[in-house]
Amino acid sequence: MTGARTFPEIDRALLADRLRLACSWLTDRAQIREQQPADIANSHGFRYADWRGSMRGEYSAAKAQWDVFCPIWHTGQAVKALVLAHRVLGDAGLLEAAKAGGAFILRQQVHDPADPDHGFIAAFEDYGDKANTSAILECLDGLFYLADETRDQTWEEAAIRALRWVLRKAYLPGEGLFRDLYDPAARAFAPWRPRHSNDRPDVPGRPLLDDGVFLTGARRAGDKGLETPFWETARRLLVEQDPPGNWIHFAPCNAITGNIHPRHAFWWGMPLIRAWQESGDATFLECARQSAQWYVRAQRHDGGLIRNTYLDFNTDSFGHETSGIACAAILWQRLKAAAGDDAFDGPTRLALDFCMRVQFTHPADENLRGAILSKVLPPDGSDRSPYHLRDLGTTFFVQAASLWLGA
Asked: Is residue 329 within 8 Å of 303, Cβ to Cβ?
């Protein structure tokens, strides 16, 4: 026998209070206000001339030390979160913070139309001098949200320029795949083959569908050519799904160990809802539902999710990933809004409840106040705090909570 899972009710007033607290952590603690901050380790060696508006992405409670990881896409998702929160809370300061984040992204874009890399955004992630295509795509939805909220098309135009660069330089036509690791100094992709797949070394790229931004850009630009990557990638994802609703054969999943990344089904499964809406092909909707169901099975009984979740849904003991279950709550709500499917209401409430229970509401360390705990690290033999923050836990909670309150 298995224990029955119970789903709590959500107190909307409490959720709104916790949303405000989480937003204050993003704007007052995580967001960088100095051109060159002195308090970040910058362990990856990112070389940005002006960091203002970006997000401190990592915080070690044990060391009381900030760090950064992939500031472009983390900031882009925070921009989206702050816009969504502004819509439900009506706090003008949130929109100003979102604009500061957007400005950081635009400062890293090549704006000269005569430059061969016109539209490129320096979205460095794993290396301090090479950009990930996925990181470029993952920052763009925030710019579209900013354009809608501010009625300033500058943000939208920047996103469309970036999409055209990705289509021109990174996309493999007819494949539904994208190359990664672009070296802007050499104006070329890295000479070694990046790890697109652990068990398929000859696969030349990954089927990136993040936030469906190519379809968004195509609609806003009136450019049907921008639709092509969306549809070719969506169709490839239908063929490649393994297990159902997920894609273990592509990084950052690992088919050799059976390890599935906690946000994989969100990045690639959720945009299939739009593919169904636009095409009427129910196969896309079914795949999105499979992604939603994968999260139901991966969700722990207390509402959380472990980063190292395996094919059999067994997990490691440590290494939580609260951002993953917050992303699941976003997917579940988007599915309900599009298809009227309320089967995931219980897991959504449980996920939001978990996020609130792991929020720092009265910590001794003020750098933690309002943040959502991202992970509990394995013991290292000492009695130092095992708590580790990533801005993504708070960012995706803000998105999920804003959707719930705005429904």
From this structure: no
**In sequence order, what E strands does 159-316 have?**
171-172, 177-178, 182-183, 188-189, 259-260, 309-310
Distance of alpha carbon 138 from alpha carbon 133, whole angstroms: 9
In this predicted model, what pLDDT tens digit does every residue of 329-365 receive, in sequence order?
A: 999 999 999 999 899 999 999 999 999 999 999 999 9
Quick count: other Cβ atoms within 10 Å of Cβ 89? 18
Q: Is the pTM of this model over 0.85?
A: yes
Element (H, E) at 276: helix 271-279
Sign of CA dihedral 181, 184, 188, 190: negative
Say which residue, 5 or 55, is predicted with more confidence: 55
Look-up of token digits 């007052």: 28
291 in Cβ contact with 265 (< 8 Å): yes
CA neighbor of 375 nearest in space, from 59, 44, 26, 138: 59
Residue type present at position 63? K
The tens digit of pLDDT for each residue in 267-286 reads: 999 999 999 999 999 999 99
The Cα–Cα gap between 147 and 279 comes to 26
**Tens of pLDDT, residues 240-269:** 999 999 999 999 999 999 999 999 999 999
252 is written with which tokens?
Answer: 């950052």
Separation between Cα atoms, residue 237 and residue 351, nearest integer Å: 26
Task: Tokens 């089967």: give the residue.
Answer: 343
Burial readout 368-402 (b: 16 or more C-beta within 10 A, e: otherwise): bbbbbbbbbbeeeeeeeeebbbbbbbbbbbbbbbb
